[in-house]
Amino acid sequence: MRIWWLVPQYVLFGLSDVFAFVGLEEFFYDQVPDELRSIGIALSILGMGSFLSSFLIYFLETIIGVARQDSWFGDNLNKAHLDYFYWLLFGLNALGLVAYMHFAKSYIYNSSSIS
After folding, report:
1. N or C, where is the chain less crowded by C-beta within 10 Å?
2. Contact 26/37 with Cβ under 8 angstroms?
3. Do residues 37 and 28 touch, judged by C-beta distance below 8 A?
4. Angle made by CA atoms 43, 44, 50, in degrees to the nearest 5
5. Terminal-residue alpha carbon distance, the chain
6. What span, in angstroms and rounded, lies between the C-alpha atoms of 49 and 43?
7. Residue 36 to residues 9, 108, 110: CA-CA distances in angstroms?
8. DSSP of 55-74, one letter per residue?
9. Dihedral of CA 85/63/78/1: which sign?
10. What's the predicted TM-score (pTM) here?
11. Burial class of residue 74 in the structure, from the number of CB atoms within 10 Å of its CB (0-12 exposed, 13-18 middle, 19+ buried)
């Protein structure tokens, strides 16, 4: 497999990252109280998702390693179960979407910023 197969994925990921960060910064400057702006921007720029993803992998390795012998992230891809991990990520993202829809529907905009 050539490296050029990865280029469209990384371009799409980069563009989505740019649009997401612009929206996050606009939200933190406009809707968040003054005391929490710097914390919100720092957490979004630092990428808390990376830390949470690392913790999730560590947690799964610890729990599954105790319960069973074969790991989801083993060195042998024929015996590893990455498909279970991707189904878990799908489930977590679906829960995140449901939570987002609930909070987006019930969110009340800060009236001082609406012009």
Report:
1. C
2. no
3. yes
4. 85
5. 52
6. 9
7. 34, 17, 14
8. HHHHHHHHHHHHH-SS-TT-
9. positive
10. 0.68
11. middle
Using N-to-C axis directions, what is the helix angle for 37-46 and 48-67, rounded to 10°? 60
Residue 111's alpha-carbon distances to 28, 62, 108, in angstroms, are 15, 47, 9
pLDDT score recorded for residue 114: 54
For 48, the token pair is 């808390």
Cα–Cα distance between 114 and 98 in angstroms, integer? 26
Residues 59 and 101: their CA atoms lie apart, in Å, by 28
Segments in the chain forming alpha helices (H): 7-30, 37-46, 48-67, 82-106
As a whole number of angstroms, the distance between CA 91 and CA 60 comes to 15
For the segment 33-80, what is each residue's pLDDT rounded down to a tens digit? Answer: 878 777 777 777 667 777 888 899 898 888 877 666 677 887 787 888
The total number of residues shown for the chain amounts to 115
User: Residue 24 contacts by C-beta under 8 Å, 6 or more apart in sequence?
Assistant: 40, 41, 44
